[in-house]
Amino acid sequence: MRTRALGRFAVAMVVVALVSLTAEAGPIIGYYESEFTGQILEGRWSESYVGGGPGQLGDEVHAASWNGAALGTQWELIGAAIDAPPTKLLDTVDGNGNGIIIWFTTYSGGVLDLTDQGPWWNPADSPGATEYTVNLTGYSHTTQNTYRNGQVVASATIVDMEGVFPDYPGCTVDFIVAQAIPAGLLAPDEPMPWGYPELKPNDDMGGSYGVLQKIRMQITPEPATMALLGIGLGAMMMSSRRRRGR
Q1: How many Cα atoms occupy the beta-carbon half-sphere of 242 within 13 Å?
Q2: pLDDT of 129-158, one tens digit each?
Q3: pTM for this predicted structure
Q4: Structural domain boundaries of the chain?
Q5: Which residue, among 68, 105, 100, 54, has the nearest Cα to 84 in the 3D structure?
Q6: What DSSP string runs through 174-240?
């Protein structure tokens, strides 16, 4: 009797977990990347110097996918702003001005929109729907600047962000850009070159812009749902072993 009860409990837990994952349409769970499979488009970015210059409080990021002709056909990030002074993690610059400096910068706020042109789109979604919204819960830049004779000769940033789908509480997203490379600077009110996202919320203080490469993104179920599924599968294995042991 106990074995049968355990078996029924196990099946119930698995069913509940699977229903939680499939009851609503929502984004397709999976891992997507740009470098080898091209599932997710690489992109371009801009950062407005709302705070008066680079690395200042309030400076805001705007980024979007780029397909060679248009921005934002697959994804777009808006509204993440610096919320604390950058932290210097490493400084090896010597007396001749040669070396590297690594900065860590955190941002708050922001929304990532994933459109129906991406591999995450679920055809079962509501007719007329065209995008998923992700509210960012974490966003940071780790930037390495290389100096020669006191001048920056190279700069690259690793972007790391996490977020949740407000319409699909069972899913979270991790989005990593292995390389964000600057392409230029803009003076106040200077127009943005074609093919780069406009400065947001405005261009009053100028800003910078560049390209995003080697993007990786993973959409996963919430831990509670996966834990429920794990409990159910574990109970099923235990029940099976007990039956075989008879």
Answers
A1: 13
A2: 899 999 999 999 999 999 999 999 999 999
A3: 0.81
A4: 28-222
A5: 105
A6: EEEEEEEEEEEEE-TTPPPPTTSPPPSS-STT-EEEEEEEEEEEEEEE-HHHHHHHHHHHHHHHHHH
